[in-house]
Design goal:
- The structure is a single chain.
- The protein has eleven helices and twelve strands.
- It is an alpha/beta fold.
- The protein folds into two domains: 5-56 and 163-328, Rossmann fold (3-Layer(aba) Sandwich), CATH 3.40.50; 70-159, Rossmann fold, CATH 3.40.50.1100.
- The protein has a six-stranded mixed β-sheet, with helices on both faces. Strands 6-5-4-7 form a four-stranded parallel β-sheet, with helices on both faces.
- The mean pLDDT is 95.
- Bound molecules: pyridoxal-5'-phosphate (PLP).
- The site of pyridoxal-5'-phosphate has 19 residues, from helix 3, helix 4, strand 8 and helix 8.
- The site of pyridoxal-5'-phosphate (PLP) has 19 residues, from helix 3, helix 4, strand 8 and helix 8.
Length: 330
């Protein structure tokens, strides 16, 4: 029996949309001391994931890995940067579930964090192809894909970050979990939830899940990637595809009518580009460390910087603000 909240909410999905739990829920919620005016809270999904890596990608894999089995695939083929948390999580949890991982990796700014990540990838059992640039990745992907056919079984192709409609369900589930925690008194209903946007699946899933949960919390997506179109219409389109997927698998509910002005997407914290640290990110990282929270400067420190500056001048009477920690090093 699955203990997914999505299955509890829509029992018709139990067989049509398989699920495997890979972490311990609910993840802890606590008040942070670093806040400037509005009370700042943190839901620590860095703790999520019982295998060798944690964070937001684990929640996506809870739906993606069973879907791979459902399609009869033995291999997942996907793409990422050289420091890819997504590729690493897929390799580690895929291996546990009997699925091989093949990665095509694009260069990103090299630093100690990326070097450590590459070493972890080498030990993860994934097959890694260094395709260096986005253009070369697009050109070679079809060949790599064919090369990793297993007999007549095709790899299951997944986009960057696992942000397919099925991957986005990880944070529909995450939002339902948050709603239960709020109902149980873990925190007051937040006016905003702030998360990094690298490929959009987390923000899209949250936006849809919060609606399904009946919360009016607004998603603030902090774009950290300049290599993909990640504006509000794109995020809402992905949420819409996830919503249609749920319906096509048998869930019955009123259309959420999610619109792109229902969420705030900002590129103000991106700096020079994906993987390039900014002074604001370094500062947020230092503040978070004082509060016992380990962030990195690619995603989460930029998102926290945005959360710290999301002041009440813009959102009069707003709060509390919830920062979603998506980084799960082990
Ligand atoms: C991938 C990632 C994100 C971004 O999530 P998306 O769903 O790709 O937008 C945020 N934080 C960390 C640590 C990540 O690895």
């Amino acid at each position: 029996m699955s203990d997914a909240l999505l299955h509890k909410r829509f029992p018709d999905l139990t067989d049509s949309l398989p699920y495997v739990r890979l972490g311990t829920s609910p993840t802890p919620i606590r008040r942070l001391d670093v806040g400037t005016g509005v009370p700042l809270w943190c839901k620590d999904d860095g703790r999520y994931g019982d295998g060798g890596w944690g964070g937001n990608k684990v929640r996506k894999l809870e739906w993606l890995l069973p879907e791979a089995h459902r399609r009869g695939a033995r291999t997942i083929f996907t793409v990422g940067g050289t420091g890819t948390n997504w590729g690493l999580a897929t390799a580690l949890y895929g291996r546990e579930q009997g699925i091989e991982t093949v990665l095509a990796l694009v260069d990103q700014p090299m630093d100690d964090h990326v070097r450590v990540q590459l070493r972890r990838l080498e030990n993860s059992g994934a097959t890694v192809h260094f395709t260096h640039t986005k253009r070369r990745t697009l050109l070679t992907a079809p060949w790599l894909y064919l090369r990793h056919m297993r007999g007549r079984k095709r790899p299951y192709y997944l986009p960057v970050g696992g942000s397919s409609p099925i991957g986005a369900l990880g944070y529909v589930e995450g939002a339902l979990e948050l709603a239960e925690q709020i109902a149980a008194g873990a925190m007051p209903e937040p006016s905003h939830i702030v998360t990094a946007v690298g490929s959009g699946g987390t923000a899209a899933g949250l936006a849809l899940g919060l609606r399904l949960a009946g919360l009016s919390t607004r998603v603030v997506g902090v774009v950290v990637n300049d290599a993909l179109p990640l504006d509000a219409p794109h995020i809402v389109r992905l949420a819409g595809r996830a919503e249609r997927l749920l319906r096509s698998r048998g869930a019955r509910f009123e259309p959420t009518g999610l619109r792109h002005d229902d969420l705030t997407i900002t590129t103000d914290w991106l700096g020079p580009g994906y993987g390039h640290p900014t002074p604001a990110a370094h500062e947020a990282q230092t503040l978070a460390a004082q509060d016992g929270l380990r962030l990195e400067t690619v995603y989460t420190a930029k998102a926290l910087a945005a959360a710290l500056h999301l002041d009440t001048a813009d959102f009069f009477g707003a709060g509390p603000v919830l920062f979603l920690n998506t980084y799960g090093p082990r």
